Amino acid sequence: MTGGFTHFDAEGRAVMVDVSDKDETERTATATGSVFMAAETLALILSGGVKKGDVLSVARLAGIMAAKRTPDLIPLCHPLALTSAKVDLTCDPGRNAVDITATCKLKGRTGVEMEALTAVSVAALTVYDMCKAVDRAMTIGDVRLAHKAGGKSGEYGTPR
Protein backbone atom coordinates (compact mmCIF):
# COMPACT_ATOMS: atom_id res chain seq x y z
CA MET A 1 0.00 0.00 0.00
CA THR A 2 1.12 3.54 -0.63
CA GLY A 3 0.97 6.27 2.05
CA GLY A 4 -2.08 8.31 2.92
CA PHE A 5 -5.39 7.53 4.49
CA THR A 6 -6.75 4.08 3.80
CA HIS A 7 -9.02 1.58 5.49
CA PHE A 8 -6.50 -1.22 4.86
CA ASP A 9 -3.29 -2.11 6.67
CA ALA A 10 -0.10 -3.43 5.02
CA GLU A 11 -1.56 -6.95 4.98
CA GLY A 12 -4.79 -5.79 3.30
CA ARG A 13 -6.95 -6.08 6.44
CA ALA A 14 -9.66 -3.53 7.15
CA VAL A 15 -8.71 -1.03 9.86
CA MET A 16 -9.91 2.30 11.20
CA VAL A 17 -7.86 5.14 9.70
CA ASP A 18 -5.30 6.54 12.16
CA VAL A 19 -6.00 10.27 12.50
CA SER A 20 -3.74 10.88 15.50
CA ASP A 21 -1.30 13.01 13.47
CA LYS A 22 -4.02 15.30 12.11
CA ASP A 23 -4.68 18.71 13.63
CA GLU A 24 -7.93 19.41 15.41
CA THR A 25 -10.00 21.92 13.45
CA GLU A 26 -13.58 23.14 13.41
CA ARG A 27 -15.47 20.82 11.09
CA THR A 28 -18.99 20.97 9.78
CA ALA A 29 -21.02 18.98 7.27
CA THR A 30 -24.50 19.38 5.86
CA ALA A 31 -26.39 16.61 4.09
CA THR A 32 -29.78 16.71 2.40
CA GLY A 33 -32.37 14.25 1.18
CA SER A 34 -36.08 13.88 0.47
CA VAL A 35 -38.98 11.52 0.98
CA PHE A 36 -41.42 11.60 -1.95
CA MET A 37 -45.02 10.55 -1.35
CA ALA A 38 -48.62 10.83 -2.44
CA ALA A 39 -50.24 14.24 -1.96
CA GLU A 40 -52.69 12.67 0.51
CA THR A 41 -49.83 11.38 2.65
CA LEU A 42 -48.20 14.79 2.81
CA ALA A 43 -51.56 16.32 3.71
CA LEU A 44 -51.86 13.88 6.62
CA ILE A 45 -48.39 14.87 7.86
CA LEU A 46 -49.22 18.57 7.60
CA SER A 47 -52.57 18.17 9.39
CA GLY A 48 -51.15 15.98 12.16
CA GLY A 49 -53.41 13.15 11.06
CA VAL A 50 -50.84 10.35 10.98
CA LYS A 51 -51.93 7.77 13.57
CA LYS A 52 -48.38 7.15 14.81
CA GLY A 53 -48.00 10.81 15.86
CA ASP A 54 -46.04 13.91 14.89
CA VAL A 55 -43.99 12.61 11.98
CA LEU A 56 -41.68 15.60 11.65
CA SER A 57 -40.81 15.78 15.37
CA VAL A 58 -40.14 12.06 15.65
CA ALA A 59 -38.04 12.03 12.45
CA ARG A 60 -36.03 15.05 13.68
CA LEU A 61 -35.23 13.28 16.95
CA ALA A 62 -34.39 10.03 15.15
CA GLY A 63 -31.97 11.87 12.87
CA ILE A 64 -30.19 13.55 15.77
CA MET A 65 -29.92 10.26 17.65
CA ALA A 66 -28.58 8.53 14.53
CA ALA A 67 -25.88 11.17 14.02
CA LYS A 68 -24.65 10.45 17.55
CA ARG A 69 -24.61 6.68 16.87
CA THR A 70 -22.97 6.70 13.44
CA PRO A 71 -19.93 4.59 14.45
CA ASP A 72 -22.36 1.90 15.66
CA LEU A 73 -23.96 1.82 12.20
CA ILE A 74 -21.13 2.44 9.72
CA PRO A 75 -18.10 0.14 9.98
CA LEU A 76 -14.75 1.84 10.64
CA CYS A 77 -16.25 5.28 11.41
CA HIS A 78 -14.54 7.09 14.25
CA PRO A 79 -16.58 7.70 17.40
CA LEU A 80 -16.92 11.48 17.54
CA ALA A 81 -17.96 13.92 20.23
CA LEU A 82 -20.31 16.07 18.19
CA THR A 83 -20.77 19.61 19.43
CA SER A 84 -23.94 20.06 17.39
CA ALA A 85 -26.38 17.93 15.42
CA LYS A 86 -29.32 19.73 13.83
CA VAL A 87 -32.00 18.13 11.66
CA ASP A 88 -34.64 20.18 9.85
CA LEU A 89 -37.62 18.78 7.96
CA THR A 90 -39.80 20.86 5.66
CA CYS A 91 -42.82 19.88 3.63
CA ASP A 92 -42.97 20.83 -0.05
CA PRO A 93 -46.53 20.35 -1.38
CA GLY A 94 -45.40 21.29 -4.90
CA ARG A 95 -43.18 18.19 -5.02
CA ASN A 96 -45.16 16.03 -2.54
CA ALA A 97 -41.99 15.72 -0.51
CA VAL A 98 -40.54 16.06 2.93
CA ASP A 99 -37.10 17.62 2.55
CA ILE A 100 -34.49 16.88 5.20
CA THR A 101 -31.36 18.85 6.04
CA ALA A 102 -28.89 17.74 8.70
CA THR A 103 -25.87 19.70 9.89
CA CYS A 104 -23.27 18.26 12.25
CA LYS A 105 -20.35 20.08 13.87
CA LEU A 106 -17.33 19.38 16.04
CA LYS A 107 -13.75 20.35 16.72
CA GLY A 108 -11.69 17.31 15.92
CA ARG A 109 -9.32 15.37 13.69
CA THR A 110 -11.84 13.89 11.27
CA GLY A 111 -14.90 15.15 9.46
CA VAL A 112 -18.58 14.75 10.20
CA GLU A 113 -19.86 13.93 6.72
CA MET A 114 -20.97 10.44 7.68
CA GLU A 115 -22.84 11.76 10.72
CA ALA A 116 -24.80 14.26 8.61
CA LEU A 117 -25.56 11.64 5.94
CA THR A 118 -26.64 9.13 8.57
CA ALA A 119 -28.91 11.71 10.22
CA VAL A 120 -30.68 12.42 6.91
CA SER A 121 -31.00 8.72 6.06
CA VAL A 122 -32.48 7.73 9.43
CA ALA A 123 -34.83 10.73 9.49
CA ALA A 124 -36.07 9.72 6.01
CA LEU A 125 -36.53 6.11 7.08
CA THR A 126 -38.49 7.33 10.11
CA VAL A 127 -40.84 9.34 7.89
CA TYR A 128 -41.33 6.22 5.77
CA ASP A 129 -41.93 4.02 8.81
CA MET A 130 -44.49 6.35 10.33
CA CYS A 131 -46.44 6.74 7.08
CA LYS A 132 -46.10 3.32 5.43
CA ALA A 133 -49.55 2.18 6.55
CA VAL A 134 -51.10 4.78 4.21
CA ASP A 135 -48.45 4.98 1.47
CA ARG A 136 -46.10 2.08 0.77
CA ALA A 137 -45.06 3.66 -2.55
CA MET A 138 -43.04 6.45 -0.89
CA THR A 139 -39.48 6.77 -2.09
CA ILE A 140 -36.37 8.12 -0.42
CA GLY A 141 -33.95 9.94 -2.64
CA ASP A 142 -31.46 12.66 -3.33
CA VAL A 143 -29.42 11.88 -0.19
CA ARG A 144 -26.13 13.69 -0.63
CA LEU A 145 -23.42 15.72 1.00
CA ALA A 146 -24.34 19.35 0.34
CA HIS A 147 -21.49 21.07 2.15
CA LYS A 148 -18.45 20.38 4.29
CA ALA A 149 -15.87 22.67 5.80
CA GLY A 150 -12.76 22.22 7.90
CA GLY A 151 -9.87 19.84 7.84
CA LYS A 152 -7.05 19.42 5.38
CA SER A 153 -9.29 18.95 2.33
CA GLY A 154 -11.00 22.30 2.91
CA GLU A 155 -14.46 23.28 1.77
CA TYR A 156 -16.85 21.40 -0.50
CA GLY A 157 -20.27 22.38 -1.80
CA THR A 158 -22.44 25.36 -1.06
CA PRO A 159 -22.87 26.54 2.56
CA ARG A 160 -26.40 26.28 3.92
TrEMBL record:
Keywords: Lyase, Molybdenum cofactor biosynthesis. It comes from Skermanella cutis. Homohexamer; trimer of dimers. InterPro entries: MoaC (IPR023045), MoaC_bact/euk (IPR047594), MoaC_sf (IPR036522), MoCo_biosynth_MoaA/MoaC (IPR050105), Mopterin_CF_biosynth-C_dom (IPR002820). It comes from the Bacteria. The gene is moaC. Substrate binds at L76, C77, H78, M114, E115. Residues 16-151 form the Molybdopterin cofactor biosynthesis C (MoaC) domain. It catalyses: (8S)-3',8-cyclo-7,8-dihydroguanosine 5'-triphosphate = cyclic pyranopterin phosphate + diphosphate. This is Cyclic pyranopterin monophosphate synthase. The keyword Lyase applies.
